[in-house]
Amino acid sequence: MIKNLSKILYSSSKSKGLYSSLPKFYFSADSSKGGHEHKPTTGPLVEKKDEKGEPRFLEMVLGYIDLAAPYTKIPKDWIEVYKGCDSTLKMNLPLVRDNGKVEFIAAYRAQHKRHRLPTKGGTRYAPDVDLQEVEALASLMTLKCAVVDLPYGGAKGGIRINPRDYSAREIESLTRRYTVELAKKNFIGAAIDVPGPDMGTGEREMTWMKDTYTYFMGHQDINSSACCTGKSMPNGGIRGRTESTGLGVFYALKEFVKESAIMKKVGLAPGLQDKTIIVQVSH
Predict the structure, then answer these.
(1) Which residue in 156, 210, 231, 275 is the catalytic one?
(2) How far is CA 212 from the centre of its chain?
(3) What angle do CA 47, 126, 136 make, to 5 degrees?
(4) Would you call 156 a catalytic residue per the annotation?
(5) pTM for the whole thing?
(6) Cβ contact 155:189 at 8 Å
(7) Tens-place pLDDT, residues 20-64
């Protein structure tokens, strides 16, 4: 049923109507549009906005699920099950800075659905990481895995820091402590939950994570080195992982601009030929 819902969300034929009608359709679900009546229970988006007046990320994700629900035959009560995370973990990690001062830093991990194990999702280090963000991203991971039939549930995690403000030693200390806390709560392991790199992290952090987990849990888990992805190659990583995300964007864009109907709307010819690309990098 999750795969059915995810295909509806990502279907190009139906998503045009869904996404273009978000404000109107979200307030009054119409059973005549297909499937059964499903009135959203997360509340109107206007009731939950951030300080900039925009719907929060989590409310946006839940809102789109509500929009897709009438196009499916999934019972209303099961839709509500799919919208919530199975498990969430929030912790405060103590860090002794290089200058001797001590900080408590918030860290999170969310496992959206464990219908298929392990759960899978990145670990981001960013100053705006919070619980609702990792829950939203974990939900999207479940849907993405279902679309391409990957046998994983969705998960996501992160530590609320700006990596540029911390030394390599401080980041290593946080990463290793984070890994230990995940292991103590059964939130990491090759058959349980497999973190990967995300914004602000890479093979360095994943190698620290793998090293810490195998040191503490290797005697109990023969597959301990598979506790995370994105490690350096000498530590069990694979070729192509570093460039895989950017390469995925390239292939997605390449296929997107082949759509004649879409290109016609913006007054461009199909294909990448004679086009220039602007890459926006956030700091």
Answers:
(1) 156
(2) 23
(3) 40
(4) yes
(5) 0.75
(6) no
(7) 444 333 333 343 444 444 444 443 334 566 666 667 888 888 888
- Work out the number of other CB atoms within 10 angstroms of the CB of residue 127: 12
Where do we find the tokens 């820091």? 161
* Strand bridging mode 87-96 / 102-111: antiparallel
The mean per-residue pLDDT over the stretch 203-213 comes to: 94
SS3 sequence of 122-149: EEEECCCCCHHHHHHHHHHHHHHHHHCC
Instruction: Say how far apart CA 245 and CA 45 lie, in whole Å.
Output: 31
Average pLDDT, the chain: 82
Nearest-angstrom CA–CA distance, 63 and 43: 9
User: What is the CATH code for 86-239?
Assistant: 3.40.50.10860
Helix axes 2-10, 131-147, angle to 10 degrees: 90
**Phi and psi, residue 98, nearest 5°:** -65, -25
Residue type, 40: P
What b/e readout covers 146-170, taking b as 16+ CB neighbours within 10 angstroms?
Answer: beeeeebbbbbbbbbbebeebeeeb
Yes or no: say if 263 and 269 are a contact pair by the CB < 8 Å rule: yes
Q: Which of 20-34, 128-142, 191-205 has the lowest mean pLDDT?
A: 20-34
CA neighbor of 193 nearest in space, from 231, 148, 138:
138
- In the chain, residues under CATH classification 3.40.50.10860 are 86-239
Tokens at 86, concatenated:
């199975």
Decide if 84 contacts 20 (C-beta within 8 A): no
pLDDT band at 163 (very low <50, low <70, confident <90, very high): very high
